[in-house]
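Throughout our pipeline, every protein is held as a single compact record rather than as scattered files. Nothing more is needed to write down the fold, since each code stands for a local backbone conformation. For reference, a complete record is included directly beneath this paragraph.
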Amino acid sequence: MDIPFSRWYPVIEKRRSRRHFDASHAIEPDKLSALDTMCKRFVPFPSTRLCLVTESVRDVFKGIIGSYGKIKDAPAFIAFIGNMDSASAQEEVGYAGEGVILEATALGLNTCWVAGFFKPGSVASLWIRVSIQAARLAPSAVNRQPWGFDVQDGSITVYVRTGGPEFSISKRFDCGIAMLHIEVAALNCGIRGNWQFLKAPQVARFSALA
């Protein structure tokens, strides 16, 4: 996408870092939607991804010393994901990330860069949480949602839940639809992986590539 310079330039001098937020004020749905769209569209480098997260924000951030500098009550955050095998990964993430920061500022939202003071374990599992949420939104026969998920370090195994109606349509068919949702969401978070098909009642395991 082209850089919306006429929208971003005026807010360069207006942006201020904000670490504490009002938990009673949610972000308007239209602003969240606009920010999510920008994260998906503004991909200036192929090895960089931006992922908006509105769930489980509270346990991600930590303080510099104790609680000092800690992000408090942020209603959402954006994960800036880069391929660290690239020699220019840091610059690429900084460039792409600031684009979304300026868009957030233009939308009237307060932000703060958090470079080193977050919990790597929580962020590393981000793609798994996002992928499972996407899988749960997959269509299925009479909305029976016959799948279950076994989460391990770096992998998601899809299995068929026992019991429930068949309606002459294989539950594994529905699970195949959920599998695609998992991989699409993972790719949107910058995670590539592969599928290994398994014996019933398991269906397949998606493992992130190192």
Q: What stands out?
A: DSSP finds six helices and six strands in the chain. The CA atoms of residues 133 and 182 lie 8 Å apart.
